[in-house]
Each structure stands twice: as C-alpha cells, then as structure tokens.
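Reopening this ticket.

The earlier resolution said the output was attached, but the attachment link was broken on my side. Pasting everything inline this time so it's all in one place.
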Amino acid sequence: MTLGFRILPRERAVSADVVARFLKLPVANVSDSMSRMTAAGSRLTRMHRDGQMAGPAVTVKARPGDNLMLHKAIDMAQPGDVIVVDAGGDLTNSLMGELMLAYAIKRGVAGFVLNGAIRDADAIRQVNLPVFAAGVTHRGPYKDGPGEINVPIAIEGMVIHAGDLVLGDGDGVLVVPYDEVETVYAATNAKQDAETRQMAAIEAGTNDRSWVDAALKRLGCQIAEGV
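Inline output:
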C-alpha cells in the first residue's frame, strides 16, 4: 500500500435525510451539543456571502499549494457532497478559484472546506456556493501531487473521516462523526427547544437570571454591598 499518494473509495456516508435535518440547525447549537470539544479553528472563515452548508465529507490530504487531488475529488464527488481539504493551512498558493468552483457546481458539490487559500474571492462571494477557507491569495496552485483522497484528515484537531457530516454557517465549520449523528441531532433539538422557551421568556420579561449571582457566589466572587 502506498502512503501519501493514493485514492480510496468512500465506504459509507450520512444520508440525504440527515443532511436535510441538520441544515435547519445552527452550527453553534450543534457544537454545544458536542460538549464544545470539536472545532476546525477560527482561521477557517466563510468566503461566500451567506447561507448554511451540510453534506457528507469527501476528504482530501494535499501538499500545501497543490490542487491535483482536489481536482480528482471534484471528479469523484456525488451531488450533495462537501469536499474537505487539509493542505496544512499554507496560504502561499491558492487551492481553487472561479473555474474550479464552476465545475464543482455542475457536479452538484454542496460546498468546500479548505485548510488553505482560495483566489478569485470576489467571484466566489458572488456565486455564493459555501466555501470556507483559511485565506486568500492571487498566486495559483501547482498540480503535481502527492496527496490522498478519502483518508482520515485533521484540521486544528478536528478529525474528519470520509462520509462524516460536515456543517458550516457564519460561525464556522463543524464535523459530526457518522456514528454520532442521531445522538447529536436529538441533543441539538432539545437545546433548540430550550432556547426557544428562553427567548420567549426574554420577550415577556420573565427570564430567570438568578443563576448569575448563584454562580458568582459558588465561585467565591467578592461583591461590594449595594451592587
């Protein structure tokens, strides 16, 4: 087996039903339901204008500044897939731009997560297909490899396996492991319901804030008399 330059099949992927259900949920609430322990870091920012992203991952491990395997991943992608690329976070050369995005749209790709740079930023913003990246540069990519497709990758400690659920909105990117989607979905729905009730209480002026003083007392905060 050749390590570092190989293309593997994707053995499984979250279903279209799972994707549709998670598209209705804020990434922040999903993150809270995963104990706030999973994140791709603040460097990955939204390069499109607005909207949410969800889909099963096609994973790519690429040499920094090289997009040969990203091209192949787009050729392999199924409609609705999100292509996630770990290119080491290097911003010297871009991984993709307007032409690759246009081809990806024709292929039905649902979005990109690039631990690297893009170019043609204005066009990507206007087209508005979800794209999250670490930065922007006008310098183009190389196409020499090596790289790997559908292997486990990690971005800032967040591990992504092919077929995992990839989410993104204005707060950033999150991956829900394939085997945990139903558990996380149930927990996120419960949190959504609690927040709906809390918002109603805020509007009604009945929101209970006693927990703030209780926490300060428990932590030993000195509060001056009359405050």
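Reporter confirms the inline version is readable. The CA atoms of residues 115 and 196 lie 34 Å apart. Residues 5-185 form a domain with the Glucose Oxidase; domain 1 fold (CATH 3.50.30.40).
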